[in-house]
C-alpha cells in the first residue's frame, strides 16, 4: 500500500533545524517584524554557548503582554488570536530557558526572569523604532533627548547649545529638567534622563571615564566669580558670614564655603537659594555672598547693588556630561553631545579678573 505524506510532515523546511518548526510571522506582522535577532561573536559569548534567536514580532507581543498583564487584551490590541499570543510567549520562554510569566487566574505577572527580559526587550524595540524613523528621514538624527542639568547650567550656559542643536538637527526634540547634582546622577543611572550635565573640578575626567556606573566626559569650562553687595552698611552683619548656594552638592558651590572656612577658622552659614537669580538678588541685598557663573554678572540683567568681590578668588569649573555606562547612544543623543562638545570652540574660558571694589570681611 502506497503511503501518503501529509503536508509539512517528514520534510524539513530549508534553513531550519531538525525538530524545530520554522518561525513564521503571523498575519498582520509588518516587514520590520520579520527580522530575526541572532547574537554575533564567538559561540562562547552567546548565552552560555547556545544561540538565542528572537523574532521582533514575538518581542512586541511579550512587551504588550507585560504591559497589559493579559493575554486576551494583548491579542485584541495586536490583532492576533489569543492562541497566537500564547504561542509567541511559549516560544520565547523556550528560547530563554525559563518562564517569563506567572499564570494567574485572571491574567499574568512577570517572573524575575521576565522582569530582566523586559529591560532588554525595551532597549531592542527602542533601537528598532529609532532606526525605522531615522531611515524614513534619510539618516537625519531624530527623536527625543531628555537632558537633566543643574540650575546654573540651565539658566546661563545651555542657551547657545540648545539654539545650535535646534538649527543643526531640527528633528531632535529636547526635553529639559532642572535637577540637583545628586538627582541628575540618579536620573542618568535609572534611565530617567538620556544625558546629565553637571559641574566638576576634577581635571582627570577631561578625557572621559567611568565612576559609579556612569560615563563622564568633560565638555567645556565655565568661569565662576564671587559676588556680594556693592556697599556694606556699618552695623550690619558681614555678608561673608553667609554663603548663598544654588545647589550644595554642586562642585561650583563648594569653592566659596571652603575658602571662607579657611579664612575665618569656622564654616560659614549656608543658605540654599534654588536658583542663580535668587542668589544674585539676596547677595545684592547684603544677605550673603555667592559663587555664580561670570555670564550671570555680565549679561546685563544682574540686580543693582551687586559687585564681584576682588578679595575672594574666582574659579574655573568644568561642565561634564553624564551618560549610562552601556556603550551605546542613540543618534539623537550623539548629535546633541557633538554640539555640546563644540561649545566655545572646545576652548576653556579664562578666569575673569576681580572687581576693584572689595566687600569688607
Describe the structure.
The protein folds into three domains: 31-136, Orthogonal Bundle (Arc Repressor Mutant, subunit A), CATH 1.10.10.10; 143-220 and 318-346, 3-Layer(aba) Sandwich (D-Maltodextrin-Binding Protein, domain 2); 222-317, 3-Layer(aba) Sandwich (D-Maltodextrin-Binding Protein, domain 2), CATH 3.40.190. Helix 1 (56-68) packs across helix 2 (71-78) and helix 1 crosses helix 4 (112-136). The radius of gyration is 29 Å and the shape is elongated. It has 361 residues and is an alpha/beta fold. It starts with 35 loop residues before the first strand and ends in a 20-residue tail after the last helix. The chain contains eleven helices and 14 strands.
- Strand percentage lies at 15-25%
User: Distance between termini?
Assistant: 112 Å
In CATH, the architecture of the largest domain is 3-Layer(aba) Sandwich
What ranges have pLDDT less than 50 throughout 5 or more consecutive residues? 3-35, 39-49, 346-361
How many helices? Answer: 11
Report Rg: 29 Å
Which fold does the CATH topology of the largest domain refer to? D-Maltodextrin-Binding Protein, domain 2
Instruction: Give the number of DSSP strands.
Output: 14
Quickly give the structural class: alpha/beta
Shape: elongated
Highest-level CATH class of the largest domain: Alpha Beta
What does the largest sheet look like? 10 strands, mixed
Helix content: 25-40%
**Name given to the CATH homologous superfamily of the largest domain:** Periplasmic binding protein-like II
Mean pLDDT: 78
Order of helices and strands: EEHHHEEHEHHEHEEEEHEHEHEEH
Biased composition (Basic residues): 1-14
InterPro entries: LysR_HTH_N, LysR_subst-bd, WH-like_DNA-bd_sf, WH_DNA-bd_sf
Region (Disordered): 1-35
Pfam family, one: HTH_1
